[in-house]
């Protein structure tokens, strides 16, 4: 029996859940092949807001099924080990007096150690209020609930026309596909929004300002950890006009063989601040194995980007990470990227330098070219000071 609520949002959720359960039951009783699952799924009516991931990329999964590739032998399998990232209380940076100085220095050392050993860590008492995070989440859900046709064709607020993205247009195999949709928002000054758009734009700007403040605080501590007492470089090069905010949604994925919510990658910035919900799915590479990050909705996740690894001469680690899709639950996250202007030159602070000098614009263009030709990002190995023959 299907319970139907009179409340529109609840009704939509119950209907969608019923479809997913029905799909799972059919797969178990009729067929375990990916192609059969795709055939069944396309006979059902998807949520009006969902991008057409299944129909668009069906051929990729059909090909994988025809080749009889063991899904347990490829990279789409989930990691078996769960980890808790180092958790750092930033409130210790604000303690006064002699004891406060000791607490501050200890907190800074923990940040430097986590960035060096893990490349990832979590922070609490970070200065971004729970109320603001909740408001962003509410707006984010509302934005993604818009009909797909509108998301794909109508510009959201005054954001760039191509800010909405879904899937992976360049994917030629399932391991190159990201089962997700996102708004990639450059944080440039806005034009005056309309009366119905003002609230969303205001919340995005308020949240971005708070994330920027935190990002620069952490970047300053990390620069200090390198012996770079003058943190003016990052403050000067990474302004509100050069950074990005990304709103992510990972729809439920019914593919038995699995799909990436976001393909394995490193971030092409100085550092990233991420807030994720309770669903989980984020994994990172440690010691040649994937570890699943235990969700902590009360903390913000910090990860080092490629530019900080290059600038720190490999003292800080830009770690490969990915998101695994969930068969039944949608997942939301929001990420802030601390980026410089395209003409900013990245140069290792120490000698001998591991990487040659390069501009951020050059780095971005090389990534685009690699993705176009090879289907994936190569990253910093393209910019080694001494290339292996």
From TrEMBL:
InterPro entries: DIOX_N (IPR026992), IPNS-like_FE2OG_OXY (IPR044861), IPNS-like_sf (IPR027443), Iron_ascorbate_oxido_reductase (IPR050231), Oxoglu/Fe-dep_dioxygenase_dom (IPR005123)
SUPFAM superfamilies: Clavaminate synthase-like
Any Pfam family matching the protein: DIOX_N
Cofactor(s) the record lists: L-ascorbate
Keywords, alphabetical: Iron, Metal-binding, Oxidoreductase
GO MF: metal ion binding; oxidoreductase activity
Protein's UniProt keywords contain Iron: yes
Domain Fe2OG dioxygenase: 241-340
UniProt record similarity statement: Belongs to the iron/ascorbate-dependent oxidoreductase family.
Protein name: Gibberellin 2-beta-dioxygenase 8-like isoform X1
Organism: Ananas comosus
Gene name as annotated: LOC109712442
